[in-house]
Specification:
This protein has 73 residues and is α+β, with helices and mostly antiparallel strands. It has a single domain, classed as Roll (SH3 type barrels). The chain has 1 helix and 5 strands. It has a 5-stranded antiparallel beta sheet with strand order 3-2-1-4-5, with helices on one face. Strand 2 and strand 3 form a beta hairpin. The longest helix has 19 residues. It is elongated, with a radius of gyration of 13 Å. The relative contact order is 0.21.
Length: 73
């Protein structure tokens, strides 16, 4: 099973988006979904697969934090 965490697009150059995951930045191909700087996205296998609204991104981030805390307990 694969899990995609939400990240925020901080810039795009030549169809490659820079994605910020709470300070950890990675590049992802933006060829499948139209995105712009500031958008929240899900990335799988180096490709942006979905754009999220800010509320969805925050809810998913909180869920992942909760799951991490449960795993540490």
């Amino acid at each position: 099973m694969c899990v995609a965490a939400p990240g925020r697009v901080i810039g795009i150059k030549n169809n490659i988006a820079r994605i910020d995951y709470n300070g950890n930045c990675v590049d992802a191909n933006a060829g499948l979904v139209e995105v712009k700087a500031g958008d929240y996205v899900l990335v799988h296998a180096g490709m942006i697969i979905q754009r999220l609204n800010e509320n969805e991104a925050r809810e998913m981030t909180e869920l992942f934090k909760t799951l991490e805390e449960l795993g540490d307990a």
